[in-house]
User: Fold this.
Amino acid sequence: MRILPLNDATSRRFLARRRAADPAALAVAERIVRDVERRGDRALFAWSKRLDNLKLGPRSLWVPRKEIDAARRSVEPELLRALEHAARNIRRVAERQLPRDWSLIVEPGVRVGQRVSPLDAIGCYVPGGRHSLVSTLLMAAVPAQVAGVRRIIVACPKPNAAVLAAASLLGLKEIARIGGAQAIAALAYGTRSVPRVDKIFGPGNRYVTAAKQIVSADCAVDLPAGPTEVLIVAARGNARFIAGDLVAQAEHDPDARAIFVTTSKQLAAAVQTHVESELRRLPAANPARKALSANGAILLAKSLAAAAEFANAFAPEHLSVPGAERALLADLRAAGSIFVGPWSAQSIGDYASGSNHVLPTGGWARVRGGLSAADFVRTSSVQQVSRAGFRSLDPVVSALAAAEDLAAHARCVEVRR
Assistant:
């Protein structure tokens, strides 16, 4: 990793990289999405054969229940215990996140409340690139179950035993062997074999991300999810721990972004050395080296205040503060997930702490947080006004309707007098 000064030019360069559009991916995804929207199963199966080498039909599309349950019996007991432990923690956090019904008398005769109801059907996209990501299944399906979603459709082109075992553990029965932009289109618009869902969850490659952007006009999607990001800010700390976090997130994707910001030249040099040491331990095909070479950096800031200013502008997916400096924490306002202290390894958040690892990237953490149980429900306001309440609010409505020159709004209350 390069060591660079954190100045205005460096900051602009790193921020500008994330705003770059991907017209090539959008063009490819647009072609696939519109083809599946128009031709349904025929297009879905054709693109699955062409892109994933999967020969599918209406029956072979779905993983049989026997295969799902057999996978649960085939995996190591240690993995099952890990899945159960992680799911338990995710469920506990999701239960706390879930919005609740409430009712309030705002003034005599006027009651306003909130009604919460689950989405009817959701699509859970599990990437199937180098590995099928079992943790992604847990992060989407468990909060959906806590919210009360009745139908969960899992899309994964090549589900491995771990994914199928997790599905069996959670009682998920509908797993489609589809991936890529064609899977997103099938979930968004429905085909003869794949039901249309209300909302699509889960990360994917650039084509999946582009497809989600395209279908979002017709089907809700969870949140903008681009390449993985990690930003670590520290004036002191364990260099080996910091390096471990940087390399861990960098191995997700060659386009992953990993940045360490510090005021200490000594710590910067030590982290740089440990990053190289960690990279030597990885297989040659691991994407971390390419990601760190292309998108990684160690930035030397003049002060912690300057470091915090850059962090807030970057608004990273993962933000670590291993030194847990209270003053620094108070200044950090925008991040998908924050890891405080030296023992809060980012992999723990990715898998087991219960905090959701589906997080905003590309600066979207400035306006929203990660996935939660609230994303799987709809909230409706409910209001009930008595005759006495009507009389109290009648003149308020009349005055405001007149100010906006909306005669029918004024008449709406006038006819009730």
